[in-house]
Amino acid sequence: FTYLVYEDHGIAATLKEKVDQLENIFSPYKEGTELSRLNKDRSGTFSDELVECLKEAITIQEETDGYYNPFMGKLCKECTLFINEKRDDPLSDEEINTHLQEINSTSVSFEGNKITLNGNADIDLSGICKGYIIDTLYEMIKDKTEYYLVNAGSSSVLLGKKMNKKDDYFYTVSFLGGEYTLLAKDTTLSTSGVNEQYRIHSDGHMYSHLINPKTGSAR
């Protein structure tokens, strides 16, 4: 994350502090985060943020008929190992089917801030947590200044107005490759693609970090 706040007054530092806090909740890869603790212990009492984001994830899973699925943690880790060349071969059909059986037989239940994982699959909220974080930052900043930009890596931005001398308050947003641009303000924008996180295997196929939850395929 990078932060540009024209009238700062310490706002950028406050936003960074919040992002660091949320990373320590949502990261499935860092040891000791709330999500990694949930995946390990399978049950426990957690923060409002994790409960809220996970409930939103379940809602999106239902609304998309499972084309977004938060229970793909183990499958995502294995695919990431392959993409990062820490594993020689892509997952076999047998491995994928084993993961899919776990994914499709896992659910989550809530009792206040107590979360319980029912089944053997792990949760990975990477598909929505960056958007959740961006929405949280917007609520923090919207009443403090109009002029800001928060860049969440190469895939998400939070835009206020751009301050300049021409009364042109729009930001110019370019997509990777420069084929498309748009003017935007007072909005958030998120994208996902296969331009960066992928691997072309000797079998001739390209494998990416985008996985079909129905088939388990990263091709």
Q: How are the elements arranged and paired?
A:
Blueprint: E1 2-5, H1 11-26, H2 34-41, E2 43-45, H3 48-63, H4 73-83, H5 93-104, E3 107-111, E4 114-118, H6 126-141, E5 148-152, E6 156-159, E7 171-174, E8 181-184, E9 187-190, E10 198-200, E11 206-208
Antiparallel strand pairs: 1-5, 2-4, 3-4, 5-6, 6-9, 7-8, 10-11
In short:
With 219 residues, this protein is α+β, with helices and mostly antiparallel strands.
Task: Give an overview in words.
This protein is of the alpha+beta class. The protein has six helices and eleven strands. The strands form four sheets. Strands 1-5-6-9 form a four-stranded antiparallel β-sheet, with helices on one face. A three-stranded antiparallel β-sheet has the order 2-4-3, with helices on one face. Strands 7-8 form a two-stranded antiparallel sheet. A hairpin with a 3-residue loop joins strand 5 and strand 6 (156-159). The two termini are 29 Å apart.
Q: What pattern of helices and strands is seen along the backbone?
A: EHHEHHHEEHEEEEEEE
Unreliable runs: none
Strand order of the largest sheet: 1-5-6-9
What is the general shape?
globular
Which structural class do you get from the secondary structure elements?
A: alpha+beta
The helix count comes to 6
Radius of gyration over all CA atoms, rounded: 19 Å
Distance between the termini: 29 Å
On the 0 to 100 scale, the average pLDDT is 92
Total strands: 11
Largest sheet: 4 strands, antiparallel
Strand content: 15-25%
Helical residues, percent = 25-40%
